[in-house]
Design the sequence.
C-alpha cells in the first residue's frame, strides 16, 4: 500500500481475534467464523501523531474508527466560534457513530498522543451486521453507550458543582481504564488541563485548583499528567457531594 502508516493487511486479519481489546470493541460476543468475517472488512490500522486529525467537522461520513492505542479528543465549534471539547476516546472505544444520521461528521477528532486506530467502512459493517445478529447487538450496545455518556455529561454540566464534575470525570477515566485491564488507580491524563476544563465547562484555573485541593485532602497524588488515586472511596464521595473532606 502507498500509505506508509498502514500495517500489512495480513497482520490485521488476525488482529480482532487476538486483540486484547476484543471484549470492549466490536468483536464482543462473536464466534470464530463471525470474527473472520469482521476481519475481512476492517481496514489496515492507521497511525496518528499527536495533534493529527482523524477527521474534520463537516467531512463526509464513510467509516467508524476503533481506538487501538493512544487517545483522541473530539471538538466542535460553538456559535461564537470557540472550540468546545466534546468527548475523549480511549482504547476499545468507537468514534464516528454520531455521524451516521447526517452522513457527515458533526465534530473533529484529534489525536492527543501517538494513537493507532482500526478503520471500519460503515456500509460494509451495516451489511454484515444484518447477517450477524451478534454483531448487530454489539453495534447497538456501543451506540447506546454513546447516548449514556452524552447524558452523563449533560447531567454533570447542568447539575453538579465544580468539584463533583472533576471527581466524576476522574472516576469515569478510572472505570474505562479498568475495562482495558489496566490499574484503575493509576491514571495518565493525555489531555491538557485546558482540554479537561473545556470538556467539563470549567476554567483552567478551576480544574488545577480542584486537583490541588483533592491532593491536599489525600484523595490524589498529582504529578503532571500522572494522577494516582489514593482514596477511591473518598473520590466517590467527592463526586457525590462535591466535598473533598
Sequence:
Amino acid at each position: 500500500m502507498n500509505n506508509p502508516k498502514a500495517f500489512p493487511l495480513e497482520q490485521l486479519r488476525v488482529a480482532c481475534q487476538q486483540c486484547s481489546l476484543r471484549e470492549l470493541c466490536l468483536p464482543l460476543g462473536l464466534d470464530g467464523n463471525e470474527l473472520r468475517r469482521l476481519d475481512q472488512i476492517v481496514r489496515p490500522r492507521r497511525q496518528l501523531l499527536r495533534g493529527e486529525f482523524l477527521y474534520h467537522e463537516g467531512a463526509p461520513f464513510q467509516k467508524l474508527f476503533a481506538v487501538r492505542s493512544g487517545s483522541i479528543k473530539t471538538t466542535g465549534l460553538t456559535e461564537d466560534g470557540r472550540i468546545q471539547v466534546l468527548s475523549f476516546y480511549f482504547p476499545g472505544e468507537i468514534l464516528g457513530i454520531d455521524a451516521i444520521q447526517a452522513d457527515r461528521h458533526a465534530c473533529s477528532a484529534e489525536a492527543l498522543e501517538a494513537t493507532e486506530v482500526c478503520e471500519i467502512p460503515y456500509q460494509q459493517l451495516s451489511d454484515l451486521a444484518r447477517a450477524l445478529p451478534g454483531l448487530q447487538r454489539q453495534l447497538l450496545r456501543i451506540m447506546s453507550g454513546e447516548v449514556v455518556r452524552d447524558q452523563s455529561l449533560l447531567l454533570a454540566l447542568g447539575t453538579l458543582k465544580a468539584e463533583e464534575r472533576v471527581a466524576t470525570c476522574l472516576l469515569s477515566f478510572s472505570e474505562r481504564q479498568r475495562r482495558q485491564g489496566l490499574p484503575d488507580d493509576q491514571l495518565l491524563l493525555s489531555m491538557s488541563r485546558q482540554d479537561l476544563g473545556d470538556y467539563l465547562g470549567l476554567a483552567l484555573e478551576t480544574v488545577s485548583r480542584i486537583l490541588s485541593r483533592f491532593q491536599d485532602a489525600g484523595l490524589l497524588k498529582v504529578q503532571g499528567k500522572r494522577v494516582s488515586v489514593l482514596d477511591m472511596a473518598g473520590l466517590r464521595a467527592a463526586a457525590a457531594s462535591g466535598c473533598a473532606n
Observations:
- The mean pLDDT is 86.
